[in-house]
TrEMBL record:
Pfam families for this protein: LacI, Peripla_BP_3
Organism: Microbacterium enclense
A GO term for molecular function: transcription cis-regulatory region binding
Keyword Lipid metabolism: no
Keyword Iron: no
Protein name: Transcriptional regulator, LacI family
Keywords: DNA-binding, Transcription, Transcription regulation
């Protein structure tokens, strides 16, 4: 069975260096950490969580709080779950996933009973009812998503305003003057999904600065309403030359809708969107898009959370936005 000594020998460092890299108790250079990570992967070394928990009074478990809503499109959320669980595993932590509708009670339950060393919060809303319980907990937390009040919270999110401006600028620079914007469903706005109006409002503001006409619509999240909605929107604005889709279910359905309509992209209509690369590969999406970076967000949130676990007095709270990146896949002209 592979042990810590085998990893140290493979890397050419001491056992204590490997131990520090795993625990985070002392700073290790990035190059050394990467070599240790590579050796762990090559050798198949697994941290003995029970022994480590006894030595550090830690569970080596992170709580992941989220909700699956019946009226939303699950595949997009799964991208974030995978990113967070992968990042946690790389740092030697397991994940306890909680999908309880009563999120505040769930947080109180898992933190007061010391089931977890820290909490990652997904599906964050503007006035998130789970935050008071999170603030009272002994364990640290990291949020993927922006609430209204970020005081004393570590928050990670995409710069949705920047993403909107980037996509509007892209269409404007190509000469488009009338475009359609398909947003998340109305219930996302009503529930306090700030990312939805952050993107929409920034897109409308940027379009107004350019003198573009924008027809903004709520999209749908479940079939057959998704396809009906897209067809109705496109029928209502046949003169529009471009469309921005900020709706996971709608962009997943769009290739089939356009194919059925006989619409050729980008000859007849330019299409831009924002979605994770893996999501795009899953649904064979050929569209120019902003990468929403669930991998980057999940990794940064978990890394910051582990820093708080290792060093609870590790400095002021962090609010960090990932800069949007546009990948041109030839769907605009």
């Amino acid at each position: 069975m592979v042990n810590i000594a085998d990893v140290a020998k493979a890397v050419g460092v001491s056992r204590s260096t490997v131990s520090y890299a795993l625990s985070g108790n002392r700073p290790i250079s990035r190059e050394t950490r990467e070599r240790i990570d590579a050796a762990i992967a090559d050798l198949g070394f697994t941290v003995n969580a029970g022994a480590r928990a006894l030595a550090t009074s830690q569970t080596m478990v992170l709580g992941l709080l989220l909700q699956f809503h019946d009226d939303e499109f699950p595949p997009a959320m799964l991208q974030y779950i995978l990113a967070i669980t992968t990042a946690a595993r790389e740092l030697g932590y397991d994940i306890l996933m909680i999908t309880d509708d009563h999120g505040a009670e769930a947080i109180q339950r898992i933190t007061s009973s010391n089931m977890v060393d820290g909490v990652v919060l997904l599906d964050v809303t503007h006035e998130d009812p789970r935050l008071p319980a999170l603030m009272k907990a002994r364990q640290p937390a990291a949020l993927v998503g922006l609430p209204r009040d970020t005081d004393e919270l570590d928050v990670f999110d995409l710069d949705f305003e920047g993403a909107a401006r980037l996509l509007v600028d892209h269409l404007h620079d190509l000469g488009h003057r009338e475009i359609v914007l398909v947003s998340p469903p109305r219930h996302v706005f009503d529930r306090g999904g700030a990312y939805a109006w952050r993107f929409r409002d920034a897109a409308l503001e940027r379009a107004a600065q350019h003198g573009l006409t924008v027809h903004a619509h709520y999209g749908e999240s479940q079939q057959p309403a998704v396809e009906r909605s897209l067809n109705a929107i496109l029928d209502a604005h046949a003169q529009a030359t471009g469309v921005i889709v900020h709706n996971d279910a709608s962009i997943a359905a769009l290739p089939a809708v356009l194919r059925e309509r006989g619409t050729v992209v980008p000859r007849d209509l330019s299409v831009v969107s924002l979605y994770p690369r893996n999501f795009g590969r899953t649904f064979l999406l050929p569209y120019t898009a902003v990468e929403t970076s669930p991998d980057g967000l999940g990794r940064e949130a978990v890394q910051q959370l582990v820093r708080r676990i290792v060093a609870p007095q590790g400095g002021p709270s962090v609010v960090r936005f990932i800069e949007p990146e546009l990948t041109d896949r030839g769907s605009t002209a």
